[in-house]
Write a structure and sequence with these properties.
By secondary structure, the chain is α/β, with parallel strands linked by helices. The chain is 25% helix and 24% strand. It binds NADP nicotinamide-adenine-dinucleotide phosphate. InterPro entries: ADH-like_C (IPR013149), ADH_N_2 (IPR041694), ER (IPR020843), GroES-like_sf (IPR011032), MDR_fam (IPR045010), NAD(P)-bd_dom_sf (IPR036291).
């Protein structure tokens, strides 16, 4: 193989938004494969808010990416060369917690080959059947424990995780209310994804809109954003409500300390269960979650969108789409054409 490999490397820790020069695209020759290894070509790279967390020197759930190290991230790749009996050219694999690399060299042992389902596009494995789908499924079902007739509120509702949360809530017989940042997103939530109501936090008074759309209060708050939106929701929680704490995207670019929720005491008064979770803790249960999500998908009960940016070279600059709210559904970078 004569092609060079390309890898995005972290050069310096971003301050606030990611800037040009924080990461470098580095070319290296491809090394010959060793026995047991598989070489793949990246098709889709997953861009996630957590990429930004991993660039910062903070005490998070995984160590930060080191300066000079390949950026951490995963996606889907197609096998181009194999020295492992279990894989052959053309197999599609999930690179898991890999790196932003065009040609990842992967250990065949323990590598996940994608079970291609008829009629299901590859992008579904980045969304409902991927890590963000599992985040929505386990966060809501395991921590939120939605009961039929209850009201579930989700922030960043038109994003990869949020869009699944509201739809799963509907499948459970709940009232689903989403909070999102544009009229188009709100329209998609109610007209396509089947949410009962959607609130545009950029143009509406979120508190008043929650009062209107959640007349019986809020039983589950699936928290993706933090800040003022979270505070308005916390103020309206019901007794014995649940709050899966999934993400706090409004804080990831912060350069100053972030205050806690002003309505914190309501968690006590309402006896709310708030539980932070990280989806990697659910790895052992992924088969269960994927099976259930795949069944709902094939039954037509889950709608999903993918925001596709083309070109591996655009990975770092495209991450800002998540922080500017430009994506509808799961943001991915298409690095090479998906297999037919
Ligand atoms: N715990 C876990 O294991 C886990 C796993 C995956 C994701 N997450 C978390 O889940 C959340 C959603 O992640 P995702 O991958 O599904 O991303 P996403 O929702 O597809 O994209 C992020 C969305 O957040 C909204 N947003 C950005 N900045 C905001 C702000 N300051 N205030 C309000 N909304 C803002 C934007 O939509 P608008 O147009 O609506 O503003 C944007 O589209 C993130 O907090 C992420 O860290 C956690």
């Amino acid at each position: 193989m004569s092609e060079m490999n390309q890898t995005w490397v972290l050069r310096q820790r971003p301050v606030g938004d990611i800037k040009e020069g924080d990461l470098d695209l580095v070319e290296t020759p491809l090394e010959p494969l060793k026995d047991g290894e598989v070489r793949a070509k990246t098709v889709y790279l997953s861009l996630d808010p957590t990429n930004r967390i991993w660039m910062s020197d903070v005490d998070a759930y995984l160590p930060p990416v080191g300066i000079g190290d390949a950026m951490r991230g995963g996606g889907l790749a197609v096998v181009v060369e194999s020295k492992h009996d279990g894989f052959q050219q053309g197999d599609v694999v999930n690179t898991g917690l890999g790196t932003w690399t065009m040609y990842p060299t992967l250990q065949g042992e323990g590598l996940a080959k994608l079970p291609i389902l008829p009629g299901v596009p590859l992008t579904a494995y980045m969304g409902p059947l991927g890590a963000t789908g599992m985040t929505a499924y386990f966060g809501l079902m395991d921590i939120g424990k939605p009961q039929a007739g209850e009201t579930v509120v989700v922030s960043a509702a038109a994003g990869a995780v949020g869009s699944m949360v509201g739809q799963i809530a509907k499948i459970q017989g709940c009232r689903a209310v989403g909070i999102a940042g544009s009229d188009d997103k709100c329209k998609w939530l109610t007209e396509t994804a089947g949410f009962d109501a959607a609130i545009n936090y950029k143009t509406e008074d979120v508190g008043a809109a929650l009062d209107k759309h959640c007349p019986d209060g809020i039983d589950v708050n699936f928290e993706n954003v933090g800040g003022q939106i979270m505070d308005e929701v916390i103020a309206r929680l019901n007794d014995f409500s649940r709050m899966p704490l999934c993400g706090l995207i409004s804080t990831y670019n912060a350069t100053d300390p972030v205050p806690g929720p002003y309505n914190f005491s309501n968690l006590l008064m309402r006896r709310t269960l708030m539980k932070g979770f990280i989806v990697i803790d659910y790895f052992p249960r992924f088969p269960e979650g994927i099976q259930q999500m795949a069944q709902w998908l094939m039954e037509g009960k889950l709608k999903f969108e993918t925001d596709v940016v083309k070109g591996f070279e655009n990975a770092p600059s495209s991450l800002s789409r998540l922080f500017e709210g430009k994506n509808l559904g799961k943001l991915v970078v298409e690095c090479s054409p998906p297999p037919a």
